[in-house]
Amino acid sequence: MIRSVSGTSLIEYPGRICSIVFISGCNLHCPFCHNPELVRPDMLDGELGLSNDDVIDMLKQREGFIEAVSITGGEPLLYEGLTDLVTRIKHETVLAVKLDTNGTLPGRLNGILHHLDYVAMDLKSSPSGYSKATGERADFSDVRESVSIIRSLSAYEFRTTMVPGIVDRQGVLELLSETGRIRRYVLQTFHSQKTLSPEFTGMPAYPANYLEETADAIRKAQLADEVSIRP
User: Fold this and answer.
1) Residue 224, CA atoms < 13 Å, CB-side half-sphere
2) Of 166, 204, 210, 213, which residue is the least packed, with the fewest Cβ within 10 Å?
3) Residues 24/49, Cβ–Cβ less than 8 Å
4) 210 burial class (0-12, 13-18, 19+ CB within 10 angstroms)?
5) Angle of helix 208-220 relative to helix 169-179, nearest 10 degrees?
6) For the residues 181-210, what does the mean pLDDT come to?
7) Is the dihedral of CA 13, 84, 78, 141 positive or negative?
8) Which stretches of the chain are assigned E, i.e. beta strand?
C-alpha cells in the first residue's frame, strides 16, 4: 500500500530534485530499520493509504518543481500496483523514476527494470551475516542475483548502513569482493532514534572517521568507481 508522498528531497535521487513515494510492507525484519512503521503497517493506526491515481495527481502538480520521483519502502517490489504506477509516471509525466529495493526479489526486479532510470539497492552485511542483518528473513543467494541484474544498468548505487554489531569494515570489504567492482557505493550513517528492534534504539553509531577510513579502504582495494558517505 502507498502510505504517503513527500514534498521534495535534494539527496534521494543523485543530482536531481525529487519527491518520494513511501510504500508500506517489507519481507525483511532488519532490527536496525529506521522506518518501522513501513515494515509494520499496524503501527500506522489504520491511516488511510493513497491510490495510484492520487500519486499521479500529486506528481503532476509538482512538475516544474521536481525532476524525479524516488519510490521507497518498506520493499516497493511487494506492491502489486507498482508496475502500473511506474509506467503511468513514465507515460503521464516527464519525471525520472528511481526505485529502492532490498534485492531479495530478483524476478520482480527484472520484470520492472526497463521502466526505471535509477536503482538503489541495500546491501545489509557480509554474506555470512545476512541472516542476522535481516531478522533471519533472507540469505545472500537472491541478493547476489539482484546485484548481477542491477550492474547491467547505467545508473545505480549499492549502499550499506553501517550498523555496529551488524556490519564492520572487514564485512564491507568481504561483501564488495562478492559483488565485484561496482560503479557507485554509499556508506550510510546509522541513525538510532527510532528502530524496529528496541535493542538498537539509542545505539551509538560508528564515528565519522571510521566510515571515512572504510571508504578509503574500498577505494584502495578498487572495489567501486565512486564511494561516498551519507550522513
Assistant:
1) 24
2) 204
3) yes
4) middle
5) 30
6) 96
7) negative
8) 2-5, 9-13, 16-23, 68-72, 96-101, 118-122, 156-162, 182-189, 224-230
Pick the CATH number of 2-230 from 3.40.50.300, 3.90.650.10, 3.30.2350.10, 3.20.20.70: 3.20.20.70
Give burial (CB, 10 Å; 0-12/13-18/19+) of 137. middle
Nearest to 122 by CA among 192, 27, 199, 208: 27
pTM: 0.94
pLDDT of 16 = 97
Buried b / exposed e across 151-186, counting CB within 10 Å, b at 16+? Answer: eeeebbbbbbbbbeebbbbebbbbbbeebeebebbb
Q: Give me the half-sphere count of Cα atoms (radius 13 Å) on the Cβ side of residue 138.
A: 24
Residue 166 has pLDDT above 90, yes or no: yes
Task: Report residue 149 as a C-alpha cell.
Answer: 541484474
Q: Angle at CA 105, nearest 5°, toward 100 and 5? A: 30
The DSSP secondary-structure symbol of 43 reads: G
Give DSSP secondary structure letters for 63-119: BTTBSEEEEESS-GGG-TTHHHHHHHHHHHS--EEEEEE-S--HHHHHHHGGG-SEE
| C-alpha cell, 96 | 525520472
pLDDT digits (tens, 9 = 90+) for 105-156: 999 999 999 999 999 999 999 999 999 999 999 989 999 999 999 999 999 9
